Amino acid sequence: MSKTILELDNVTIRFGGLTAVDSVDMKVEEGTIRALIGPNGAGKSTIFNLITGIYPPTSGEIRFLGNRVNGLKPHVITEMGIARTFQNIRLFGEMTVLDNVKIGMHCRTCTGFLGALIRSPKVKAEERSIAEASMEALQLMELDHKADELAMNLPYGEQRRLEIARALASRPRLILLDEPAAGMNPQEKQTLMSMIRKIQTMGLTIFLVEHDMKFVMNLSDRIAVLDYGRKIAAGSPVEIQRNPAVIAAYLGKEVV
Amino acid sequence: MDASMLSQQILNGITLGATYALIALGYTMVYGIIQLINFAHGEIYMVGAFVGVLMVTVFQQGLLFSLAAAMLACMVMGVTIERIAYRPLRRSTRLAPLISAIGVSIFLQTLMTKIKGPQPVAFPQVINDALYKIGPVEISKVQILILIVASLLMATLHFIVKYVKIGKAMRAASEDYDTAALMGINVNRVISFTFAIGSALAAAGGVLVGLYFNSVSPFMGVSAGLKAFCAAVLGGIGSIPGAMLGGIFLGVAETLGIAGGFDMYKDAIAFTLLIIVLLFRPTGLLGRPIQRKV
Amino acid sequence: MDSFFSMFLNDYYIQVLTMLGIYLIGALGLNLITGVTGQLSFGHAAFLSIGAYTSAILSIKLQMPFALAILAGGLMAGLWGVLLGYPTLRLTGDYLGIATLGFGEIVRVVFLNMTITGGALGLAGIPRSATLTVVLFIVILTVWAMVRLENSRFGRSLVAIREDEIAAEAMGVNITTTKITAFAIGTFLAGISGGLYAHLIQYLNPSDFGFIKSFEFLTFIVLGGLGSIPGVILGTSVLTLAPEFLRFIADYRMMVYGLLMVFMMIVRPRGLLGGVQLSRIFSKKKAQQTGTSASGGAN
């Protein structure tokens, strides 16, 4: 049994009267691919926003590698080793593809504005290493030939991949992918799947939210199911497919 | 400051605040729908005051007729400005219409300076300066007029927004512009209507202020516009009751500040209040809190 | 070098060009705040006035050397930039603009009521030390610094904040300190610009630094093209020189100026050089020469 990288302990968040996430417990093992599924509005993206510090939970605790992360600012959490992509693609549209990935390297580098002015050999070396590492991340996502284009001019599928490249550049231990396959055609999804597996072999843990069941079932080691903010099931893909509560949630039947 | 003087100052503050509120309504309604700070709005108020003077002096009309004429003239002007200077920029960056608004403002100010000269013009005193005593406070005829006209106009606005079809469309567009358009609301018409109403209210404010302070100048729109805008933000920009509340609040605070010996800092009172409110309630007194959308 | 300029230009044109240079420094500062980082400021003139009064008072009262006085003015403006920025930069978009507008008006009223500034009478007797050579030197230095920032880790994080604050934060950018640093640099430049202005015009009055002046700077950078250094240079030049060219229509020139602003926005809402970056022009050329770029992405 490998060690737990991420742990959600009785996490709840309420927006006004709405309980978006309700006492969720979850453990993600290091080096695995974990999926979170559930109907629209079940609170999946909210869980990602809680983990990355965009919302503080109303109650409960989130631990990453044993350290409490709730209450920390998003950029600190990224520095600790959690990176993410967004469901509604949030690239820096007017920056080039390469510069988008370079921003991912931000928390692993240190040149401030004075350094930028002086541009010492050390700064130049850092800038070179940023460029090299960013190109590597682009190569991994097969986007290196688009490095000089503006991010907003990329087609949809490539924008999704660019988000992953940008997240990888921050050298995370855990990467959260929010609907990475949304809007892709079957062929693109196939490519993406092999890319995600490649990321896993690099030693990263992957936590993804996805609607495409075939994609999720093929890729994930373990799956958790969310409905109306509550975790209703967890297990291997086979277990989840047979789980009556899950089937009911998806088909809208009463749970007996 | 004793109690009777305090209540006198509060009354004066409310009168001043009512005029701020009339201008603030235009800012807040326009912002609510197209998120534009209409920096030319203060100039519309100034033009309204001049039209009032023109009607009373040259055309020898009565006050109410002059008021109506100023409102009508500014309605046309407001709609025209929107049509020419803002509508073509609706889908461009946020700053473009803002710069355009500043251009309109410079144009109107210099145009009026060209026509009437830079010196203030006296507003003919069509109302005698009789004072009435109500309990501890004195109220002048002009003040009564301002309070009555302002309340009537605001009540009418409330009625339109709440019960009339176009007013409901305004609320819908302010809630969600794109959805309102999808639901078949003619958004362009709603925006024109919003500019018409906002400009008419500002014109009324201009005539009343001209009468109250007995002076009208091409530059009166600058500081009044900024303060009314403060009032709109204080109350919560986009909120109609907020603009009314913000206007009154600001008027009273300013009058009390002057009475309290801060007259040198008179123009800073509004902005100091503004910054304090923004820091503690970033969306104003009656504004809805913003939820971070991811 | 000043005598060199006076061989070609009469005093009036030298004065206009010096003023243009001074405005450029301030405009580049505002461009860093609003154009590059995307933080709306309606109070830039206030920081000019802080720099102007600080340096002028140091020059007059303490006979401080010109260079030191200018630097002190810049630092004072930058300090106030940080003091204002710290609580207000968490406000988003228009609210930040409104708060800076309020700050600008407060600063003006405070200067109007201080004794050391001469109040409404103004402050006279400032030495005329800002020559065209000095100003030109500082302009070149500023442009050089801005180009260097544009292509650095720091510069990228500023643009990322403008493009998407939440994503920038999620990528590890500390948005609070980054924004404040940008604000500090931008207001520092405003202070330098104000100090030079004081030492050119030799007289200061709070009413010269009202919100109209702040909007003038905003217009410089928007007309030129937000975030683009060549755009800022072009926009500032066009608008500073336009009233000179419009002199033949005498009294109507401000009216025409207002109409031109509206017209320019309608014709080119993204500014004359919107989206043009010096570094990108060069890098694109390089890429085309070596033929490595598969396709140019700029628009």
What does this protein look like?
- The complex is a heterotrimer of chains A (256), B (294) and C (299).
- Chain A has a domain at 4-81 and 172-251: P-loop containing nucleotide triphosphate hydrolases (Rossmann fold, 3-Layer(aba) Sandwich), CATH 3.40.50.
- Helices cover 39% and strands 24% of the residues of chain A.
- Chain A has helices at 44-51, 74-80, 97-104, 113-118, 121-140, 156-169, 186-201, 213-219, 237-242, 244-251; strands at residues 4-15, 18-29, 33-37, 59-64, 67-68, 82-84, 174-178, 205-209, 222-227, 230-235.
- In chain A, α3 (97-104) packs across α5, α3 runs parallel beside α6 and α5 packs across α6 (156-169).
- The radius of gyration of chain A is 19 Å and the shape is globular.
- The two termini of chain A are 34 Å apart.
- The mean pLDDT of chain A is 90.
- Chain B has 294 residues and is an all-alpha fold.
- Chain B has a domain at 18-220.
- Chain B is built from eleven helices and two strands; from the N terminus they run ααααββααααααα.
- Chain B has a two-stranded antiparallel sheet.
- The longest helix of chain B is centred in the N-terminal third of the chain and has 32 residues, at 3-34.
- Chain B starts with a helix and ends in a 14-residue tail after the last helix.
- Chain C is mainly α and 299 residues long.
- Chain C has a domain at 2-210.
- Chain C has 13 helices and two strands; from the N terminus they run αααααβααααβαααα.
- In chain C, strands 1-2 form a two-stranded antiparallel sheet.
- Chains in contact: A-B, A-C, B-C.
